[in-house]
């Protein structure tokens, strides 16, 4: 266990060095949090939403970006011991707030301020909780492709703080890292993928287990500023008696103005252990 922790710590500490070695473009190297990139030199507006595959492109230095689920819902039905168990959840204003630190690095704060979960057994409500969710701190480091080339690669270490109330999460710190990539294909097709490692608390005790997430997404313009995407996401866990989780995801994005994007979509569970449906609507904006 200690060697895993040491590896993650060493990896995180090495990120700024990796980023600086990733082919810095001189004309943007001078900009930072307190010396913003001029509007005319900013890269195209790129977000981590609405698909579940994160983007390797960071926010331009000195600029602020917010990506928000206005509302996201989950619904799941299963039969256990001859009883039908239905769980539904709703989150409002689930937001990822980003700050561009340097040409290749941004800092992100993910908050879930309003959440509710309800459970029913054979149509009778047995639990109903609501409150604040956990907070996740992330650092995105672009290793290549931020401002040039068809291929981009990044690394994102993160830690989740147990800020939840009313049992809407664990009371332990969790963490891990992501490795997202993106590739611009011919005819305006875009391909993205991600590998993610989570160190997560067990459901039944205070021990921890490993989770491994992979995803692949493809997107293409439909008409004008309207685009669509399709995605496959899956997660494997080393926790005892855990099951494979997977979804197929579809969504639309609409660029309202150059720095404001609207979106909507649904994630559809394709394995027994996955929520049946996860619809959402949201928006992203950059300043």
Written description of the protein model:
The chain is mainly beta. 8% of the residues lie in helices and 57% in strands. It contains 2 helices and 14 strands. Strand 11 (226-237) and strand 12 form a beta hairpin. The termini are far apart.
Offer a quick outline of the entry.
The protein has helices spanning 2-20, 26-29, and strands at residues 64-80, 83-100, 105-111, 114-121, 124-131, 135-144, 151-161, 174-184, 190-201, 208-223, 226-237, 245-257, 260-269, 277-286. With 287 residues, it is mostly beta strands.
List strands and helices in order, with pairings.
Elements lengths: L1 H19 L5 H4 L34 E17 L2 E18 L4 E7 L2 E8 L2 E8 L3 E10 L6 E11 L12 E11 L5 E12 L6 E16 L2 E12 L7 E13 L2 E10 L7 E10 L1
Antiparallel strand pairs: 1-2, 1-14, 2-3, 2-4, 3-6, 4-5, 6-7, 7-8, 8-9, 9-10, 10-11, 11-12, 12-13, 13-14
How does the major sheet shape up? 12 strands, antiparallel, barrel
Along the chain, the helix and strand elements come as: HHEEEEEEEEEEEEEE
Helix content: under 10%
Number of strands: 14
The total count of helices amounts to 2
What structural class do you assign from the helix and strand content? Answer: mainly beta
Uncertain runs are 17-24
Strand percentage lies at over 45%
N- to C-terminal distance = 42 Å
CA radius of gyration: 20 Å
Q: What is the strand arrangement across the widest sheet? A: 1-2-3-6-7-8-9-10-11-12-13-14
């Amino acid at each position: 266990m200690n060697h895993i922790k040491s590896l993650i710590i060493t990896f995180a500490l090495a990120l700024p060095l990796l980023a600086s070695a990733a082919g810095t473009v001189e004309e943007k190297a001078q900009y930072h949090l307190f010396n913003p990139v001029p509007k005319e030199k900013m890269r195209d507006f790129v977000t981590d939403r609405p698909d579940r595959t994160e983007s390797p492109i960071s926010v331009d230095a000195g600029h602020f970006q917010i990506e928000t689920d206005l509302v996201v819902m989950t619904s799941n039905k299963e039969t256990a011991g001859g009883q039908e168990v239905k769980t539904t959840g709703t989150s409002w204003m689930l937001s990822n707030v980003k700050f561009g630190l340097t040409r290749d690095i941004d800092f992100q704060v993910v908050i879930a301020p309003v959440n509710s979960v309800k459970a029913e057994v054979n149509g009778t409500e047995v639990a109903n909780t609501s409150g604040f969710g956990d907070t996740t701190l992330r650092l995105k480091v672009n290793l290549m492709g931020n401002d040039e080339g068809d291929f981009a690669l990044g690394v994102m270490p993160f830690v989740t703080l147990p800020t939840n109330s009313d049992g809407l999460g664990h009371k332990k710190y969790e963490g891990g890292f992501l490795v997202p990539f993106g590739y611009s294909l011919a005819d305006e097709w875009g391909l993205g993928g991600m590998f993610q490692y989570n160190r997560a608390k067990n459901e039944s005790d205070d021990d921890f287990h490993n989770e491994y997430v992979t995803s692949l997404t493809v997107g293409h313009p439909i008409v004008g500023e309207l685009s669509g995407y399709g995605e496959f996401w899956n997660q494997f866990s080393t926790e005892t008696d855990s099951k494979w989780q997977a979804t197929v995801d579809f969504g639309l994005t609409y660029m309202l103005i150059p720095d404001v994007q609207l979106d909507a979509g649904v994630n559809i569970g394709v394995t027994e252990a996955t929520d049946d449906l996860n619809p959402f609507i949201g928006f992203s904006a950059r300043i």
